[in-house]
Specification:
Layout: E1 2-5, E2 9-17, E3 20-27, H1 36-44, E4 50-59, H2 64-76, E5 81-88, H3 91-103, E6 110-113, H4 116-128
Parallel strand pairs: 3-4, 4-5, 5-6
Antiparallel strand pairs: 1-2, 2-3
Helix pairs in contact: 2-3
Length: 129
């Protein structure tokens, strides 16, 4: 379990099973953490691949630079990500997620959730099996 804190945001990363990784983002990510979230994820992601759950229900929205950095990171790791699931808590974060999905060329590999219960159920199912 890794927790990275900055003035405006917090990022928590943890494994929920051998091939399930959860990334929780809260606050307004303006880039204060730099590459640290990406580096931490690289250390936690199993080499054989994993399903990534991004819980952004408490995120206020990343800056454009942060969104672009995440899109680049995801694009470079498409082969290691069997699925990317992202829960958005606002329309702005949902639009940002759509941009990242398109830029990273994730297609059907990335699911964007606006319903927290559906996201939590998908996470519970992936963690159990």
């Amino acid at each position: 379990h890794v927790v990275l804190e900055a003035v405006h945001c917090t990022v928590a990363i943890r494994r929920r099973g051998p091939r399930v990784v959860v990334l929780e983002i809260s606050g307004h990510d303006v880039g204060e953490l730099g590459e640290r979230p990406h580096q931490a994820l690289d250390e936690i992601l199993p080499p054989e691949g994993a399903e990534l759950f991004i819980d952004a229900r408490n995120a206020l929205g990343p800056s454009l630079g942060v969104s672009a950095a995440w899109a680049h990171w995801l694009r470079a790791r498409r082969e290691r990500l069997t699925r990317v699931n992202m829960l958005t808590g606002s329309r702005f974060v949902q639009l940002t997620a759509d941009f990242v999905k398109r830029f990273a060329e994730l297609g059907e590999t990335m699911r964007i959730y606006t319903d927290a219960a559906a996201f939590d159920e998908a996470l519970a199912h992936a963690s159990a099996g």
